[in-house]
């Protein structure tokens, strides 16, 4: 319940620009500030100041004098009004359906349903209608901010690469590797032929290890390293604790990877990453799928599209036609029809929810029953699945998001200052 009240309080504080009824018949509401062709009423300022005080009391915060609070409240309300004016000129609207979805989300975050949220709002002294409109304003302002600012944010590939590398370096100290090691040694002053012979022996060992040979056994029998009798086990170490030659080689490697041969002054090294800890890895499942799409129209009804796909499916299953040929002949998807319906490899998150659900639950090689998405009627087949290492992509995305949030905030403040500078704002003297 505390979480719900906090959400209510924040929303009301941010968008308290709803006129409150004047207390007492002898007090009339009046204009406090003129903002372009709009106004801010004194009741809105009073409501904002009052809510600031309520929030401060809940959080045990000492506040400055009312005059200072009033200045801050007016400043926030002016900025809100300016952004709403920009939104109106741009035709930005929040539909009732979008508003209802957001209210459901607010309630769920608080661990209650919308009816309970309404009761708490009413109990707090606000009307449900005014609360709804305050959330609608918040959503409207958020939408116009994103529309106005996102095109002003530019992030170069080099910035992403630099930040990703910096994040890697920061995490390297926390990552530890358990390395297994084989050394094919060379004597000091060895001839070129002797060095070449050692290289070839190391490469043969790599071939055998890749073919399934046991690393421990190979280390005991073939390594001239100091840990040969321990199966080449070097124990746990971070990249900062291991030899520079090894540190450079293990970066971005995963458990089970074989590395080498790496040449040094003492010979050729073969490493295996026996285990890791503290290393963040991200794996994603990708599916290879194909489909046939029929779009409905005034000519092709829902029922007929479904029936036609059922007939196509039966012909394919019975071996009377191939999926590829039927897709080329009947599919209304111009992007995949010429490829026999093939959609290639991808994560299912990119698809329509109904299509994603079918692919997520489909068995490889099984053609689905006809189903409907926002694009029309489909039959689909998952032809393969695979797990992909998305760690590097995840790092790049994380770097991009960090840069975007930083630059977005800078550009948002610049844009807000610009609309202030271009506005006519007059505070009405009491």
Structure description:
The protein contains 14 helices and 11 strands. Strand 9 and strand 10 (376-389) form a beta hairpin. The protein has a 4-stranded antiparallel beta sheet, sandwiched between helices. Strands 8-7-10-9 form a 4-stranded antiparallel beta sheet. Strands 2-1-11 form a 3-stranded antiparallel beta sheet. 22% of the residues are buried. Helices cover 50% and strands 19% of the residues. With 430 residues, the chain is an alpha+beta fold. Helix 7 packs across helix 14. It has helices spanning 2-14, 42-59, 66-90, 96-109, 114-123, 128-149, 157-172, 192-210, 215-222, 244-250, 302-317, 323-330, 353-361, 391-421; strands at residues 31-35, 38-41, 176-185, 233-238, 258-264, 267-277, 283-294, 342-346, 371-373, 376-389, 425-427. The model is unreliable at 1-8 and 10-27 (pLDDT under 50).
Brief summary of the model shown:
The chain is an alpha+beta fold and 430 residues long. The chain has helices at residues 2-14, 42-59, 66-90, 96-109, 114-123, 128-149, 157-172, 192-210, 215-222, 244-250, 302-317, 323-330, 353-361, 391-421; strands at residues 31-35, 38-41, 176-185, 233-238, 258-264, 267-277, 283-294, 342-346, 371-373, 376-389, 425-427. β9 (371-373) and β10 form a beta hairpin.
Structural class: alpha+beta
The total beta strand count reads: 11
What sort of overall outline do the alpha carbons produce when their principal axes are compared? Answer: flat
The helix-strand sequence is HEEHHHHHHEHHEHEEEHHEHEEHE
Q: What spatial order of strands do you see in the largest sheet? A: 4-3-6-5
């Amino acid at each position: 319940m505390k979480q719900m009240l906090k959400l209510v309080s924040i929303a009301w504080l941010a968008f308290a620009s709803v006129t409150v009824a004047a207390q007492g018949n002898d007090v009339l509401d009046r204009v406090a500030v003129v903002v372009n062709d709009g106004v801010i009423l004194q009741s809105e300022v009073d409501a904002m100041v009052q809510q600031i005080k309520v929030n401060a009391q809940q959080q045990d915060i000492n506040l400055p004098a009312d005059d200072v609070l009033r200045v801050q409240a007016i400043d926030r309300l002016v900025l809100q009004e300016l952004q709403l004016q920009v939104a109106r000129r741009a035709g930005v609207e929040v539909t009732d359906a979008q508003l209802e979805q957001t209210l459901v989300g607010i309630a769920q975050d608080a661990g209650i349903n919308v009816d309970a949220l309404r009761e708490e709002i009413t109990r707090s002294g606000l009307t449900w209608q005014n609360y709804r409109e305050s959330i609608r304003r918040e959503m409207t302002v958020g939408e116009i901010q994103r529309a106005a600012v996102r095109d002003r944010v530019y992030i170069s590939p080099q910035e992403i690469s630099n930040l990703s590398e910096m994040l890697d370096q920061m995490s390297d100290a926390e990552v530890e590797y358990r390395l297994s090691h084989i050394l094919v040694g060379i004597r000091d002053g060895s001839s070129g032929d002797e060095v070449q012979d050692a290289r070839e022996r190391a490469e043969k060992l790599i071939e055998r290890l890749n073919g399934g040979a046991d690393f421990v056994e190979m280390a005991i029998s073939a390594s001239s390293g100091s840990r040969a009798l321990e199966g080449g086990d070097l124990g746990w170490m971070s990249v900062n604790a291991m030899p520079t030659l090894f540190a450079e080689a293990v970066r971005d490697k995963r458990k089970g990877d074989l590395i080498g041969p790496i040449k040094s002054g003492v010979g050729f090294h073969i490493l295996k990453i026996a285990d890791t800890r503290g290393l963040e890895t991200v794996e994603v499942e990708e599916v290879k799928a194909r489909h046939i799409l029929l779009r409905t129209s005034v000519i092709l009804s829902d029922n007929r599209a479904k029936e036609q796909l059922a007939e196509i499916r039966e012909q394919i299953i019975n071996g009377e036609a191939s999926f590829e040929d039927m897709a080329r002949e009947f599919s209304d998807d111009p992007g995949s029809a010429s490829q026999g319906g093939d959609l290639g490899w991808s994560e299912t998150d990119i698809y329509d929810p109904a299509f994603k659900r079918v692919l997520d639950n489909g068995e490889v090689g099984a053609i689905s029953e006809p189903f409907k998405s926002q694009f029309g009627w489909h039959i689909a087949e998952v032809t393969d699945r695979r797990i992909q290492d998305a760690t590097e992509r995840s790092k790049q995305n994380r770097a991009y998001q960090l840069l975007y949030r930083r630059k977005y905030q800078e550009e948002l403040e610049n844009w807000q200052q610009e609309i202030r500078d271009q506005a006519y704002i007059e505070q009405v003297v009491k």
